[in-house]
Every structure is written in C-alpha cells, then in structure tokens.
From TrEMBL:
Signal peptide range: none
Family to which the UniProt record says this protein belongs: Belongs to the ABC transporter superfamily.
Domain ABC transporter residues, every copy: 2-226
Keyword Transport among UniProt keywords: yes
One protein family per Pfam: ABC_tran
Protein name: Amino acid/amide ABC transporter ATP-binding protein 2, HAAT family
Length: 226
C-alpha cells in the first residue's frame, strides 16, 4: 500500500534520513522503532509532506507519487498523521476539534455519523464533548487526537508515540483502540520508543538508527529477543 524508496531528508545541515526504504502492506500494522533522534518522526513527516524530500520517492498503492502531493492532498488520499505531543486545538471544544478532522469532507450527514462512531469508540470524549480541548487530561487529549484523525476516514494512520506521557492504564486503553482499528482493516505505521508495547500489536517492525533502517523483522522474532 505504501512504499518509501531511498528517502533522504535534511533539516539545514542536519541529515535526518539517509536512505530510508520501507513498506506498509494493506491492513498491516508496522512499528517503527529506534532511539531518540533516529529519524522516526521525520519519516512520518516526510510521508505526510510536512518536510521535503532531498532524494527518493514515496509511493501509494504502487502508483501514486505521494511525495508530489501537498499535505492536504495526502489526507485526501486517506493517509492521516497523528503527530507526537497530542496536537489538538486547546481553545476549541472536543466536538469542534473532531469536526476539524473532517476538513477534506463535504457531506455533513456523513460527518455526523462518523462523529457518533468516534464517540462510541471513545465514550470519554462524548462525556466531554462541550469541554475545551485544553481542559482534557493527557490521555483524553491523545484520544482526541486519534479521534480527530478518524474523522478523515483514514486508510493508513501514521501514529507518532501515542503512549508518550500516559499512565500504564491509559497506554493499555489507547493500544486496545489501535488494535481494534487494525482489526477493522486500517493500515497503521506506528512510531514508538517503547518497543515492548509496540511489538505486542505490530505484525512487523523496522528499527531505525541515525536515519537508516538497521533491522527489519516480524514482530514475533523481535519479541522473542526481548
Ligand atoms: P522526538 O525525538 O521525540 O521525535 P524531538 O525531541 O526530536 O522529538 O523533537 C521535538 C520537536 O523539536 C520536533 O518538533 C522537532 O522537529 C524539533 N526538533 C528536534 N530536533 C531539533 C533540532 N536539532 N533543531 C530544531 N528543532 C528540533
Ligand atoms: P526520532 O523521531 O527518531 O526521535 P527525529 O525524526 O525527531 O527522530 O529526528 C531525526 C534527526 O533530525 C535528529 O538528529 C533531530 O535532532 C533532527 N531534527 C528533527 N527535527 C528537526 C528540526 N525541526 N530541525 C532540525 N533538526 C531536526
């Protein structure tokens, strides 16, 4: 479904990605692991077109050169990024935040149905639908960020460190939802510093170091090495 071919990205003189090649098959949940600074977040930013490629290609469905789309075009194609740090709009209500996730869509009746589906998946968000995003707890903000992404009807979700800063109980809750989405057929590329958690849900994993893929293996192989 998604293929990165020899992707290079620099921030000024900092070479963040030095030839990343990887694939996410349709319906797969793939983990992107590795130490801080390895290039995991930059890989997601390259896919969602938040940083330009210096070299290489990003191809969707074997044919579409995603690296030529603007960021909004990537969302329209069903590739939706949940950046690290629970990026929501603190001054908008929970419900308004969710509506912003549907910015590429026009049919209001359909959007309302999807809103209800998000509320079923995240009952805590429904209870707080009229509260400002900034007043939610960290875990609720992470759920809101994921819920907002679902409003764009993703085929491929790019999740950046969804466990960051959450209590173990909330991590479990968030990862149960990630597992559910995977079972429902959403493809997922999951960045995690906590390899243990990621390998419980992922089918395959890539390990990045210094902007390169240093290991690619089925998750069960990596689990047995832990
Ligand atoms: P993580 O390693 O958890 O992905 P970072 O700490 O690298 O996150 O980055 C956090 C934020 O700081 C990001 O928005 C990133 O773009 C920015 N950032 C990271 N490294 C640098 C840097 N060397 N110079 C400027 N901004 C940076
Ligand atoms: P990871 O997500 O694996 O922690 P990142 O993709 O955040 O890694 O960072 C990869 C490299 O790029 C690091 O050396 C980081 O300092 C650098 N970097 C990330 N974001 C920025 C930025 N906005 N400006 C400059 N350097 C950055």
């Amino acid at each position: 479904m998604l293929e990165l071919k020899d992707v290079h990205v620099s921030y000024g003189s900092v070479r963040a990605l030095e030839g990343i090649s990887l694939q996410v098959g349709s319906g797969e949940l793939v983990a992107l692991l590795g130490p801080n600074g390895a290039g995991k977040s930059t890989t997601l930013r390259a896919i969602s077109r938040l940083v330009p490629l210096r070299r290489g290609a990003i191809v969707l469905d074997g044919a579409v050169p995603l690296h030529r789309d603007p960021p909004e075009g990537v969302v329209r194609r069903g590739v939706v990024h949940v950046p690290e740090g629970r990026q929501i709009f603190p001054e908008l209500t929970v419900e308004e935040n969710l509506w912003t996730g549907a910015f590429t869509r026009r049919h209001r009746a359909e959007i309302r149905q999807d809103l209800e589906a998000v509320y079923q998946r995240f009952p805590r968000l429904k209870e707080r639908r009229h509260q400002l995003g900034g007043t939610l707890s960290g875990g609720e903000q992470q759920m809101l960020a994921i819920g907002r992404a679902l409003m764009a009807r993703p085929r491929l979700l790019l999740l950046d460190e969804p466990s960051m800063g959450l209590s173990p109980r909330l991590v479990e809750e968030v990862f149960t939802i990630i597992g559910d989405l995977h079972r429902e057929g959403v493809s997922i590329l999951l960045v995690e510093q906590n390899a243990h958690i990621a390998l419980q849900v992922a089918g395959r994993a890539y390990v990045l170091e210094n902007g390169r893929v240093v290991l690619s293996a089925p998750a069960r192989e990596l689990r047995s090495r832990e």
